[in-house]
Amino acid sequence: QMVVERQLGLQGVTRHDLGREKFIEKVWEWKEQSGGTITKQIRRLGSSVDWSRERFTMDEGLSNAVKEVFVRLHEDGLIYRGKRLVNWDPKLQTALSDLEVESKEEKGSLWHFKYFFEDKSVKTQDGKNYLVVATTRPETLL
Prior knowledge:
Layout: H1 2-10, H2 15-18, H3 20-44, H4 60-75, E1 87-89, E2 94-96, E3 111-116, E4 130-135
Antiparallel strand pairs: 1-2, 3-4
């Protein structure tokens, strides 16, 4: 998905511009062009794999199994929506895995915030009625 989205981006197009069906067609086209290359590389590395069981993420049987398990886990309360920090690509409008993130060090500022306790009788070990939180990403605290 990410590779196809990057290719579209070079053409000034997003997956949203294409719509779901056209985008899925593009992913399948990419799979037809590149899937063999990936398999050849894995074979050359000497992987001991049962190639008769090879699957692509979007194969119908695999997709149906994933959907079924996802629904079951959601019904069991093991998958839920929550407020969490995620790696977000603002251009592609999608969450990214840690493996897809290119880390880059930048010189920045460290912001310090005082959070006062609502209960005035609560104090820290050194007698303060607040905690100081420092962050380089103040937008995550506001």
